[in-house]
Amino acid sequence: MSTAPPAAASGDVADRAAAGFRAGYGEAPAGRWAAPGRANLIGEHTDYNDGFVLPFALTLRTVVAAAPQPGERWTVRSELSDTPVEFGAAEVGEPGRVTGWGAYVAGVVWALREAGHRVPGARIAIASDVPLGSGLSSSAALEAAVLAALVDLGGLDLPAEKRPRLAQRAENAYVGAPTGIMDQSAVIRCRPGHVLFLDCRTEAVEHIPFDLDAAGLAVLVVDSRAPHRHVDGEYAARRAACERAASLLGVPALRDVAVADLDGALARLDDEEIRRRVRHVVTEDQRVLDTVGLLRAGRIREIGPLLTASHVSMRDDFEITVPEIDTAVEAALAAGALGARMTGGGFGGCVLALVEADQADPVARAVAQAYADRGFPAPRTVLPAP
Length: 386
Ligand code: ADP
Ligand code: MG
Known about the structure:
binds magnesium ion, 2 domains, 42% helix, binds adenosine-5'-diphosphate, four-stranded antiparallel sheet
């Protein structure tokens, strides 16, 4: 699907969800449930290494309008598709039976049932302002909004801190995307005006104030619109390399290699590529901790170099950036951004840049100009701030 919002998607997203429900089912929904997209301030490919991440919620949201329907049947409409998806208990029983975008919804039903919940049959209509496939977690936003709707409609007992694992299970085991825990945690647990400091091993969270306005700053998020290249295979390869390195080093996960012990650890690995992967993960965890330290001290402006160092590490050591992304980062920095990096899993997706509030437009223009100079399709500014 394209990363651009659908042409019909004008107007408030919650109104669109309700209107989609009425048009599709000829009645009003029982309620609406929302979850935001997310961007990750820093901490990339650390989640599946049991490490640290620092995402924040976007103002862009996915909204689900829903109502119960009798029996164990689910009917789902999205404003992005003309064809509704329908499934019952038999189809949902087996991962792989419902495919395409409907699998994200069926996966949530499946994961709830697997966890022993009695999931109510439901009619669902989805609307979203989160661009799809841009690395801003439209998939987790969809899972989280559907999950919230089903939990409320069924009166299920599932506290917020248990929802990320369940939504992750839907995406890993049902959809078949091997994501870590960051996306679902971010869209479920982030609070406005804060970044979520998440320890992906323990799932402990700390909400750290991130008041850009007060600091006279903004975060510019630019959708690179780079076509995703081999993203599933490359993601799996990075994950496998990290797991192999942890096993060679005799630790449960790369999170257990302290940055102070990095040189010693690298000396024990003879494959140069694996060494680079390890160096990224270990230094990235430390950059998250350093960023948290600065934010706790109210020194937001000083995190810029950490963001840029994270980008360099992703580019040179983890090798997950693409020319469009590197161009956007370089252009943002040259135009005065305090720091800039790719955000998300890589091979496309978005770049975020920390800028003086009054520099957001000039920096966005500089990125667009650099794209034009290189002959890339125009990038898109997704939002100026969390
Ligand atoms: P990201 O999470 O970065 O946006 P993913 O590839 O993980 O990218 O998830 C995108 C997929 O999620 C889409 O291709 C689609 O299958 C599904 N999806 C997300 N939002 C919606 C929506 N509003 N309507 C239908 N499907 C959606
Ligand atoms: Mg996703």
